[in-house]
Amino acid sequence: MNERAETGRWIVSRDGQRWWFDPGARSLDFAYTGGFEGPPEWEHWHGPADVERWWRERFGAEVEVGASAYEDARALRGAVARGALAVSGGLAVPAGDAATIDRHAAMPDLPPQLGTPVAPTHERLLAAVARDAVGTLRRTDRLRACSADDCALVYLDTSRAGSRTWCSMSRCGNRHKIRRLRERRAAGHTTRNVTEEN
Predict the structure, then answer these.
(1) CB neighbour list of residue 117: distance below 8 Å, 6 or more residues apart
(2) Which of 34, 142, 150, 154 is the least crowded, having the fewest Cβ atoms under 10 Å away?
């Protein structure tokens, strides 16, 4: 199995803008397949084949996902999303969601191997995601919501300084810079007008 470290996805907003969002943790990336409330187009899983494709893209794993396994993945996904929203808002992970995450995290995952790797299964992959979620949700000082007033995306700040403020610099960070620039220009224009009148 070729395990991959990449996280993130392209998001298209309702105004048609497309930008890259990296939530900073594999478990959050898992949850952003549709576990967070958002527009219908943010739902990426419409059946077991979509989960199979996600395992293949993110973990390089070829596994079969049946109807029951699909529901297990969706349940874990929802639990991670609700837990992240709670923690980023200064609250505890809801008890039921914590129990769901802990149940999967207690299962065998994908141990590192020097020889023949352990064959991936859907259950082991869910365990790997759940263990990542436990570590992510414990980082209460680094799990945050975007600072933009009209954005609720949650991310794990993995920057060295812990200074990440926006879901994406190319989206909310850039909009903030443009707003500040316009405010400064407007303030300068007002100041000039007052000076000229005096």
Answers:
(1) 1, 110
(2) 150
The three state secondary structure string of the chain is: CCCCCCCCEEEECCCCCEEEECCCCHHHHHHCCCCCCCCHHHCCCCCHHHHHHHHHHHHCCCCCCCHHHHHHHHHHHHHHHHHHHHHHCCCCCCHHHHHHHHHHHCCCCCCCCCCCCCCCCHHHHHHHHHHHHHHHHCCCCCEEECCCCCCCCEEECCCCCCCCCCCCHHHHHHHHHHHHHHHHHHHHHHHHHHHHHC
Q: If pLDDT is split at 50, 70 and 90, which confidence band does 13 have?
A: confident
If you ran DSSP here, which 8-state letter would residue 167 be given?
Answer: S
